[in-house]
Amino acid sequence: MYHIIKAFEDILEQDVIDFEVLQKLAFNGVPDDKGLRSLVWRILLHYLPKEKSARESTLKKKRQLYKQFIDEIIVSPGGPTDHPLNISPDSSWCTYFKDNEVLLQIDKDVRRLCPDISFFQSATEFPCPEIVNSNGVKRLHKRVEQSVLKYSTLERRGLGVAKLSNEIRRSDSITSGDYAPLNEGCEAHWEVVERMLFLYAKLNPGQGYVQGMNEIIGPIYHTFAIDTNKEYRQHAEADCFFCFTNLMAEIRDFFIRTLDETESGINYMMCKLSDCVKKNDRAVWDQLERQELRPQYYSFRWLTLLLSQEFSLPDVERIWDSLFADTQRFDFLIFICCAMILLVRQNLLNGDFASNVKLLQNFPPMDVSLILNKAVEISNR
């Protein structure tokens, strides 16, 4: 392990990083020690430049820009100014209601992020002062709770008590069973993730927020927020936001329905996976074809969410070392998915449609290095 850490430290100390060498090293896994993964991901996701001398100014500029986003979009955006019943699509009330709709979905999703670990429920060491010391006014989850309650009272006026009680149950469900917000002055990590996703949706109106993005941003933020370097931890939010934005620029087509059939779309990726299985294990492919067990039934989630739902967080982070280091961006993802199928081939050959769907939709726990080694083997054929 010492030699591996030393190899990473040496390359990261170069005046200009040899990107190909870094990719090869990272492909085999980045050590958890000394915040190496956090730094390597920032470079592989094209946030930090290869030139060591340019890194400090890049970080300063980007972190300042992120602070500006928070100030302009969350801290002091100014409320709606025109009439609430103005039906113009450019109306500020119309924008406000649309934002709240998006926020409602984000809020619901981030309160359930990685429930197996306590990290996202715990307090960040670096809360955003303008937001956590605002008597709750600037907190996004407050806006969600208020909008749901307002919605319920509006419903009551027109549709009687039955409708109201239904909506109040809905507002209760937001705070029960899911992660709870922390008190004034503190902020949980899931609240930080909520802010990043809301900003992303606002700054990318052509795409906005799509359910599942929370699963993509979670592992990146977790990696950055547990960095051993205090300065990097302090700016985990800003750095994560830009890394996530860069990653989404590469995989955004997975999330856009109109692009499903294009070469970067999700259906094309599922066809590639099917072809990969066919080429590497005809018997398994024949069995899935016979049972009409389409890739859509199990691999849509695998591919769209980069396997973040199929494995524990440490395993996801190890898999992502290889994905981010892949020179053929995300070809290796196909090989990993194919390896997963081949490693349960006996079960698939013996199983009926129902048991096979269940097996692939709830992939059994397995040593991730076994899967990655098999994927490398497939990629070399």
Automatic annotation (TrEMBL):
Residues 31-327 form the Rab-GAP TBC domain. GO terms for biological process: intracellular protein transport. It holds the Pfam family RabGAP-TBC. It is found in: Cytoplasm; Membrane. Keywords: Cytoplasm, GTPase activation, Membrane. It comes from the Eukaryota. Its main location: cytoplasm. GO terms for molecular function: GTPase activator activity. GO terms for cellular component: cytoplasm; membrane. InterPro entries: Rab-GAP-TBC_dom. Interacts with RAB1A and RAB10; in a GTP-dependent manner. Acts as a GTPase-activating protein for RAB35. Together with RAB35 may be involved in regulation of insulin-induced glucose transporter SLC2A4/GLUT4 translocation to the plasma membrane in adipocytes. This is TBC1 domain family member 13.
